[in-house]
Amino acid sequence: MSAAVSESLRAAYLGSLPELRHMQFIAGLSQSDAADFCLVSPHTYRRWLRDRPPRPAMARLMAIRAGYLPWPGWEGWEMHNGLLFPPGFDRHGVGPDQVAGLPYLLHLTRELTRPPVRTASSPQRGRWAFWRRTGSR
After folding, report:
1. Which residues contact 125 (CB under 8 A, 6 or more apart)?
2. Which domain CATH number covers 31?
3. What is the full per-residue pLDDT of the chain (137 aa) written as tens digits?
4. Domain encompassing residue 36
5. Residue 122 lies in a domain
6. How many Å apart are CA 102 and CA 10, to the nearest integer?
7. How many domains does the chain fold into?
8. Distance between CA 15 and CA 63 in Å, rounded?
9. Which helix (H) or strand (E) holds 48?
10. What DSSP line would sit under 60-100, residue for residue?
11. Is the entire prediction scored with pTM above 0.70?
């Protein structure tokens, strides 16, 4: 996402009233849907947009729904349409299926880059060495 959108997400998370309408737009919510999301009546939500500040928790939830990630270590990261975007990227986000495969990929990379262990106590090599030591096939 652009730097302006990232900054407006941050401002909304910090409770900026003019940003609430923008967050609603970025989140793709109608006023009725936004009111339901914030667990308030449509009348209360319209008041927040006009002249009264929303509860801070609601402004923060709306910013998170719009894609802001406020947790330490996630500065600049955003979530849009179910995809995770690193700082500075607005295309090629990472989906849940790719995130779920990361631990396996990291483990595989560690195994492939680890030097083979050779000890004097195991002179036999190859797949038959295990069976010869244990007596199982």
Report:
1. none
2. 1.10.260
3. 567 777 777 777 776 656 778 888 888 899 999 999 988 999 999 998 888 877 888 888 888 888 888 888 888 888 888 888 888 887 888 888 888 888 888 888 888 888 777 666 655 555 555 555 555 55
4. 3-96
5. no
6. 28
7. 1
8. 9
9. helix 42-50
10. HHHHHHHTB--STT-TT-EEETTEEE-TT--SS-B-HHHHH
11. no
88: left (phi over 0), alpha (psi -120 to 50) or beta: left
Pairwise CA distance, residues 75 & 73, whole Å: 6
Largest CA distance in the chain: 81
Burial of 79 (0-12, 13-18, 19+ CB in 10 A): middle
